[in-house]
Amino acid sequence: xxxxxxxxxxxxxxxxxxxxxxxxxxxxxxxxxxxxxxxxxxxxxxxxxxxxxxxxxxxxxxxxxxxxxxxxxxxxxxxxxxxxxxxxxxxxxxxxxxxxxxxxxxxxxxxxxxxxxxxxxxxxxxxxxxxxxxxxxxxxxxxxxxxxxxxxxxxxxxxxxxxxxxxxxxxxxxxxxxxxxxxxxxxxxxxxxxxxxxxxxxxxxxxxxxxxxxxxxxxxxxxxxxxxxxxxxxxxxxxxxxxxxxxxxxxxxxxxxxxxxxxxxxxxxxxxxxxxxxxxxxxxxxxxxxxxxxxxxxxxxxxxxxxxxxxxxxxxxxxxxxxxxxxxxxxxxxxxxxxxxxxxxxxxxxxxxxxxxxxxxxxxxx
Length: 366
Fold this sequence. Notes:
The protein is α/β, with parallel strands linked by helices. About 15% of the residues lie in helices and about 20% in strands. It contains seven helices and 16 strands. The strands form three sheets. Strands 1-2-3-5-7-8-9-10-11-13-15-16 form a twelve-stranded mixed β-sheet, with no helix packed on it. A two-stranded parallel sheet has the order 4-6. A two-stranded parallel ribbon has the order 12-14. Helix 4 links the parallel strand 15 (about 275-280) and strand 16 (about 310). The longest helix is centred in the N-terminal third of the chain and has 19 residues, at about 1-20. This is Oplophorus-luciferin 2-monooxygenase non-catalytic subunit.
């Protein structure tokens, strides 16, 4: 009996020791020395993270993924954001990531200029966010977008992209192409993105009438029923906004940012499809007058106070504003810090002056 008890106790101790014995330090990551200079970490939710910010070259990056045994090849994020870019890390070629997959990729501040079509073939079913802001990308395989079945966000701001084909993805909702001055738009550029909700096109040199390739064509957003946030600030959009320039098919648009352009006026139907509570930002443009025929339809769509931001425009504040001065409800929709070119606040203009000096009375919105 005593021998049996001792045997049971001994076996129990060994089982307990086997259960509580710590795993190798790197587990579930690969051996640290094998993936150096990349660093693998985990979190309490059992996600794997890989930071390769210290990689020096294309070859070194590929060696990490093709010469290492990964116990678990499915990573949540890959990060390559060096403090100083390495001049031998220039391309993401086919096979560079071996069989490893990612849900999110963040790469910026590098000299990477190209990504091949097959680079992320293993991530077609996993990649949700692809952030390549602030590199020197001259080429991106846009034609592969529809092969990424869960890709929700594509961020390509501040690169050197030269061509933009018609985009196709049934899932993409966030797109940022800002800062790529070589791109031009056609009426069908975004037609293949039915779920696009956020499109940012800042600082791209779009809109100058002296270069037809930069013109923003009518109906370019006409096939985007979910478009909520459109940012086209800091371009060179000039002159009169033409009919159907911004016209998502349903009343979905919550924010339209056209700050820091050269817009002087708008067609009555230039901006439509605004949602309840929407705002339109036209700060720092070249707008001198707000006649009711052109601006009345826009203000009629807006429902919130301060919804139309016209600060820093050369507003003359003449009889063209009689209709606004005569309607306190409409006037409240103009940002309350909007000023005339002479410095006075628009909302503070005395109705009596217009009544005395503008014959015929205020023109009403039709």
